[in-house]
Amino acid sequence: MIKLDDIAIFVHVVRAGGLAAAARRLGMPANTISRRLRELETAVGTPLLLRSSRYLHCTAAGDVFFSRCQDSVDVLELASRDLHSSGCQIRGEVRVAMSSSFSEFAGPGFFNDFLDTNPQVRVQFMIIDQEPRLVDNGIDLALRLGPIDKPSKVVRKLGRVTLGLYASEAYIAAYGQPCHISDLRAHRHIRYLDPRHNENWVIKGPDGEHPLRMDGQFASDSTMGMIHAAEAGRGIALISTQAMRHGRHALVRVLPDYHVVTDGFYAVYPAHGTLSAAARALLDFVIQATALLDQAAGDA
User: What region holds the HTH lysR-type domain (predicted)?
Assistant: First the structure.
């Protein structure tokens, strides 16, 4: 007899790319998973997987079986999870991968309202700046700067990120206040390490767009690193206007009528899966909260 649980295990193993990764995600010993897969292959009467010491691949029959079963497994698992939350508080565990830039953008207390409203939801937050391997690491949701163009993932834009020019009062006193974009060429810059822009940006102002080259001695891929360097008088930095609202930073806005709009922040989750009720609730909260931050930045 074919067991539905064994089919679900097979789908998770294929998605994870191996027994060890599937075992971590399912919380099940790898040898148990291996035994259940053998029982499934016996029940269907054909091998579904090709195994080696390092790799695991579907057979031709396994490919067909996986493609026909995966959506049904997702629907059944979602129905099971929703039964636990129907008529009562949402419960469950959500694993979230955040880039350091999103963490700095959100600021302290960003998730407080969600956690207070959903006491039965356990959330694990991990800071991962590289593109996360969602399925392999059992991650439900990733929050990051910049889009991901991959058909295996669902990408939802959360909001823009606006950068402004900032410097310390001590720096301005020593080197003078820029009055026009062209004056920046004579100033020291703090570089933001972004491979999509390198050192070249486009800044917008009341007189249109201007090319802006931020080429300085000090560089960082962290918003807080940029803020600390600017507070130490290392030069003028392009810093998120949203991040500058968190805390009391000893910086002043330079050329406040000019700004840079970046790709923005995105929520990412696997395309093949269906978000659990807890993960969906967290995503809905993030969408609403980032919209408020986006509006506040536009009003500033």
Answer: 2-59
Looking only at the bridges linking them, the beta strands covering 92-98 and 141-145 are parallel
Here the contacts of 44-52 (C-beta below 8 Å, separation 24 or greater) are: 44/2, 48/10, 49/10, 49/13, 49/14
196: enclosing H helix or E strand = none
Q: Has residue 229 got a pLDDT over 90?
A: yes
DSSP state letters, 29-71: -HHHHHHHHHHHHHHHTS--EEE-SS-EEE-HHHHHHHHHHHH
Mean pLDDT of 136-146: 83
Query: What pLDDT sits at residue 300?
Result: 45
Instruction: Give how far Cα 141 sits from Cα of 42, 89, 102, 124, Å.
Output: 36, 20, 13, 11
CA neighbours closer than 13 Å in the CB half-sphere of residue 283: 21
Q: Give 270-281 pLDDT, tens digit per residue.
A: 776 567 888 888
| Greater model confidence, 14 or 148 | 14
Output the six-digit token pair for 98.
Answer: 């955040």
Q: What is the pTM of this model?
A: 0.60
Domains, the chain, with CATH or none = 4-85 (1.10.10.10), 92-159+264-299 (3.40.190.10), 162-261 (3.40.190.290)
The CA distance from 269 to 219, in Å, is 31
Average pLDDT of the segment spanning 115-120: 90
Task: Report the mean per-residue pLDDT for the chain.
Answer: 83
**Percentage of the chain with pLDDT > 70?**
86
DSSP 228-260: HHHHTT--EEEEETTGGGSS----EEESTT-BE
